[in-house]
Amino acid sequence: MKKYILAIDQGTSSTKTILFDESGQAAAKGSVDLKTDYFDNGFVEQNPEDIFQNVLDSVTECLNDFTQKGLNISDIVSCGISNQRETFILWDKDGKALAPAVVWACKRSIAVCTDLIEKGQNDFIKLKTGLLLDPYFSGTKLLWLVQNDAELKKKIENGEVFFGTVDCWLLYKLTNGTHFKTDYTNASRTLLFNIHTLQWDKEILEKWGLSNLNLPQPCPSSHDFGTVNWSEILKLDDNFSIPMTSLIGDSHAATFGEGCFEKGTAKVTLGTGSSIMMNIGDKAVLSQAGMLTTICWSTEDRVDYALEGAIVSCGSTIEWLKNELQLFSSPAETAAMATAINDNAGVYLIPAFSGLGAPHWQMSRKASIEGMTFGTTKNHIVRAALESIPYQIKDVVEAMEKDMQAALKSISVNGGMTQNQFVIHFLADLLGIPLNKQKNPDVSALGAAYLSGLKSGVYESIAQLSEINKKQTEQVLANANNDLPTNGYQGWKEKIARF
């Protein structure tokens, strides 16, 4: 009898739910889009109840797909969640949200960050959290809410406010408030968590006036987080109650799903934004080259750290070209548009729509298209947008190698943009190494499933997972004779340096 794991991948634009079997193969899927509110002042928000309902709808769709194939719900052993990171929610003890969910891409706390940096807190924060003072992370946006909502500030001071990233919010709701927990990866993205002690940092909380904020218990990513009674929540006829045995940030989940189990292995997630994460082993190395140090993933007997370069605009750049400039009707058209011309003709798109992330951390930079002439066509602009993705990744890889004083052992790619053949081959040629690509495109969900299965006994060990992954990986080889990416990258670096 087969065993299955329910993996929920709650992302910025949708929630995917996938049921995986013991061999890491998807047996059933469900996917439901999620609304995000983008405001012209740089604010980005979601409705917390919409996030929860979105998950329920996605799980329902997946279970329906599963049962329609004649499979039995009783064979599902455990569940796990991977989630959009840095997005956070505030709620009361009854599970009622007290504010909109503030999304990771929100830029409301630029002034807060500037003020804290001017007060000399950047090194202090980096030493404890591995992060930089940037609006990308939860803590400074929380401070903005406190500074701009007197009633909320009073509730925090009175100990009435619960804080959590999306994983924690979902767990709280799914267990009727009986489990208030998060995992180390999600906690490590808040600016409030000490990555060395693996605890919330009392000194930071006191300095920022957040000592009375209710914070979840931090736990390993693979852990017993409580039991979810799906029958009660989804009004099912079947008796379907299973343990939640993994919580993990989506980029970290993808790192685990890609099999980055050893020091020097890395992955690139190409989604709305992009995350390049490299496993650096069991010790936190603080970057001198603009990288972040974070928890890579963890089990109850092992914690691996990572260097990460977070890129703010990846697939979102292509969506902007489609929605606002209407240069094409579908992103699937862009690869052909890019290859319809010989090169970028000196046109570069700097995708700083929400500032530039690692390794530059230029918070106030705005997006621009540079090098245009009357000979510039929409194909040049599209190509420049696509090229900006590999260029940003190359920036991060060079910084990581500088920190580690060693070249990457391997690099894996995942996410929606991996379907774009122009981007993938351009990236391979620019990095000059093969790219490992999972046949299963949903590696964040797979990582959550692997970690859940390790705790629930579906998988015996990480060594077993490594063997499973080898059977599901293909390579994209680099073309050593293509010097266009390298030449283009020199121009990119010149444009970046001018700011």
Textual characterization of the structure:
One of its GO terms (biological process) is glycerol catabolic process. One of its GO terms (molecular function) is glycerol kinase activity. InterPro entries: ATPase_NBD (IPR043129), Carb_kinase_FGGY (IPR000577), Carb_kinase_FGGY_CS (IPR018483), FGGY_C (IPR018485), FGGY_N (IPR018484). Keywords: ATP-binding, Kinase, Nucleotide-binding, Transferase. This protein is α+β, with helices and mostly antiparallel strands and 499 residues long. It folds into 2 domains: 4-250, 2-Layer Sandwich (Nucleotidyltransferase, domain 5), CATH 3.30.420; 259-498, Nucleotidyltransferase, domain 5, CATH 3.30.420.40. Helices cover 36% and strands 24% of the residues. It contains 17 helices and 24 strands. The strands form 7 sheets. The protein has a 7-stranded mixed sheet with strand order 18-19-17-16-22-23-24. Strand 11 (193-194) and strand 12 form a beta hairpin. Helix 10 packs across helix 15. The protein is globular and about 65 Å long. The model has no long low-confidence stretch (mean pLDDT 94).
